[in-house]
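Here is a complete protein record:
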Amino acid sequence: MYLHDLRNAEGEKQSKKRLGRGIGSGIGKTSGKGHKGQNARSGGGVRPGFEGGQNPLYRRIPSKGFSNAKFKKVYTTVNVSALNNFEAGSEVDVLKLLDAGIIKKVEKDGLKILGNGELTVALKVTANKFTNSAKEKITAVGGSVEEV
């Protein structure tokens, strides 16, 4: 097999629809847009959900229930095992984690340390939240925990 033998699979490539190329093409003259009207205009058409002035479906259906999404806490999470990258006795906080590339950004409610994995280095860890297992693992190896 050579490069010049390669072909696309049957029906894989479709040619672009060429609008306004004569009556015989089936999409000549008005190019499939009909005669005049809002949809025939440049930039014309209506927004999604618009029903011609009739009260749209999303407004006709009653709102019901309560969503807690507005009040949800959003933390950047780091597992205890990721803290093994630091030297013994060092202080670990959000800025150190960002510099080390362990986290990319800090969410609105700050940093939360999770207890997944094992920790072998004694560290002073500063974060907004800790899980109970994370606290236990950090203090078990001689480190300290500080909630901000």
Observations:
- The CA atoms of residues 32 and 123 lie 69 Å apart.
- Residues 132-140 form the longest helix (9 residues).
- The first strand starts at residue 76 and ends at 79.
